[in-house]
Automatic annotation (TrEMBL):
Its biological purpose: Catalyzes the cross-linking of a glutamate residue and a tyrosine residue in the PqqA protein as part of the biosynthesis of pyrroloquinoline quinone (PQQ).
Claim: Nuclease is one of the keywords in the record: no
SMART domains: Elp3
Cofactor: [4Fe-4S] cluster
Stated family: Belongs to the radical SAM superfamily. PqqE family.
Gene that this sequence comes from: pqqE
SUPFAM superfamilies: Radical SAM enzymes (SSF102114)
The organism of origin for this protein: Rhodoplanes tepidamans (Rhodoplanes cryptolactis)
Domain of life: Bacteria
Binding site for [4Fe-4S] cluster: C22, C26, C29
Alphabetical UniProt keywords: 4Fe-4S, Iron, Iron-sulfur, Metal-binding, Oxidoreductase, PQQ biosynthesis, S-adenosyl-L-methionine
Name the record gives this protein: PqqA peptide cyclase
Length: 371
């Protein structure tokens, strides 16, 4: 290990994408267009080793995600292995395919927290987005089952032009279901979602109104419901410190075992991702070139390189910088100081009503006018 690699601080969180399979078909899915196949998924024993290595590296929180992690038949064993490794374990689920009995088995195996994605506060609109009749009802039922088991619950709502006006209703839903936290997060335009960007992008007035509402809702729910919100960065001129900085706090393991600094990192050409099948997690974190590529600030160009905010936002999102400028070392165009800032304004201006491309061939559930 080089001297520099030895001084890399440990990550706090690991996102384990247990499978890319999913029973829903949301148009805003940020998973890659080419999904990894079931036959290539890591087995239980390998995930168990990865969890032990993660805990040894210093990881505290494990997020079990997908696709839909409940499609893994060994999910209870996976949770038990995470608990045995000493990790705080959060299940991120669509709730579809997870019944009360299995949730109880997960709780008994040591699951610490459940996060349920909800497409909308309106049942028909939610099922329409998920393209799955009955999905909303299953989500609400699982939320109640989680609370009854004493599991802390977070509701996660992805917002876009079609539902950003219903944030108060989403917050009310979270409170009614007994959640302790709601995450309201704007679409990440990676993977499948890119094809729907113009149709999903909210308008500036909608974002301004949403921000005012969230401030009021936070005041109203202080002490009973935590409201986290990630608004689009296309209007503010302020880039997001994506993941708290590349290779700084977290890592992602894909279903087949590739280890990524962020789940969209494979969109940046030229990065080679090491696999847990070939390397120990600590060696990947500290020594793999993909993690070193944008760690810290030395890779930066101007205006980031001399900017007083460079240790705060780390130049924004590398994947967005590449997607918009073709140069992953460029300042994220979301920043008002970026010479490419006009590109995000153009994207926001290009928002237009149009049909969504769902991530499934299942037929529509309700009136397509809702999209
Ligand atoms: Fe952040 Fe770079 Fe913009 Fe400075 S110039 S605020 S470091 S993105
Ligand atoms: Fe990859 Fe932001 S999504 S760095």
């Amino acid at each position: 290990m080089t001297g520099r690699a030895a001084t890399v601080p440990p990550p706090l969180g690991l996102l384990a994408e247990l499978t890319h399979r999913c029973p829903l078909g949301c148009p805003y899915c940020s998973n890659p267009v080419a999904l990894e196949h079931r036959a290539d998924e890591l087995d239980t024993a390998t995930w168990t080793r990865v969890f032990r290595e993660a805990a040894g590296l210093g990881v505290l929180q494990l997020h079990l995600s997908g696709g839909e992690p409940a499609l893994r038949r060994d999910l209870v064993e996976i949770v038990a292995a995470a608990r045995a490794a000493g990790l705080y374990t959060n299940l991120i689920t669509s709730a579809v395919g997870l019944d009360a009995r299995r949730l109880a088995a997960l709780a008994a195996a040591g699951l610490d927290h459940v996060q349920i994605s909800v497409q909308d506060s309106d049942r028909d609109a939610a099922d329409h987005v998920a393209r799955r009749p009955g999905a909303f009802a299953r989500k609400a039922a699982l939320a109640r089952e989680a609370v009854a088991l004493g599991l802390p619950l977070t509701l996660n709502c992805v917002i876009h032009r079609g539902n950003i006006g219903r944030i108060p209703e989403m917050v009310a839903l979270a409170a009614a279901l007994g959640a302790g936290r709601i995450e309201i997060a704007h679409v990440q335009y990676h993977g499948w979602a890119l094809a729907n960007r113009a149709a999903l992008m909210p308008r500036r007035g909608q974002v301004d109104a949403a921000e005012r509402e969230i401030a009021i809702l936070r005041d109203r729910h202080r002490g009973d419901l935590v409201i986290d919100a990630v608004m689009p960065d296309h209007f503010s001129g302020v880039p997001k410190p994506c993941l708290g900085g590349w290779g700084r706090r977290s890592l992602v393991v894909t279903p087949s075992g590739l280890v990524l600094p962020c789940h969209a990192a494979p969109t940046i050409p030229g990065l080679a991702f090491w696999s847990v099948r070939d390397h120990a997690l600590e060696s990947i974190w500290r020594e793999s070139p993909a993690f070193a590529a944008f760690r810290g600030t030395e890779w930066m160009r101007e205006p980031c390189a001399s900017c007083p905010k460079r240790e705060r936002d780390f130049g924004g999102c590398r994947c967005q910088a590449f997607a918009l400028t073709g140069d992953a070392r460029a300042t994220d165009p979301a920043c008002a100081l970026s010479p490419d800032h006009g590109l995000v304004a153009a994207l926001a201006a290009a928002a237009e009503d149009g049909p969504w491309r769902w991530r499934t061939d299942r037929p529509a559930t309700v009136d397509a006018r809702r999209s």
